[in-house]
Amino acid sequence: xxINSVPAVVVFLFLAACGSxxxxxxxxxxxxxxxxxxxxxxxxxxxxQLSAAVKITPMDGxxxxxxxxxxxxxxxxxxxxxxxxxxxxxxxxxxxxxxxRVAVSKDIADLAAVVSSTDDAGLIATFNVFAVDTTAASAxxxxxxxxxxxxxxx
Length: 154
Description:
Helices cover 75% and strands 0% of the residues. It is an all-alpha fold and 154 residues long. Helix 4 runs antiparallel to helix 6. The termini are far apart. The relative contact order is 0.11.
């Protein structure tokens, strides 16, 4: 049996089901929250590693610098993720994504200084700048997480 024509109703139903004439639906808050959680997970894990390295007694500058370099790399990826996320969130949330992205950019610069420090005094000084800046920027993440229906960071 050969089909020579397809009824117009079938074509219309097929096109409607495929969504060819409509734009994709905006992501839900839950989807955006899941994307955020996935984006920050590597940085959070790297931050845990840096925190553990800092607690080693006596201080091991090489381990701290290596952990800081790992976090720096994770934060570079996170920053790119925030640029992508900013395009998907509602306009009212974009300033909060941008504030978080700026905070991450500052962390990247601070971590680069930690990694490039050449002695213990420089390592301690640059790490303390990173710690202060990270604490000061925490409000940006509280707002963004709230926008996405997530609890504040712990």
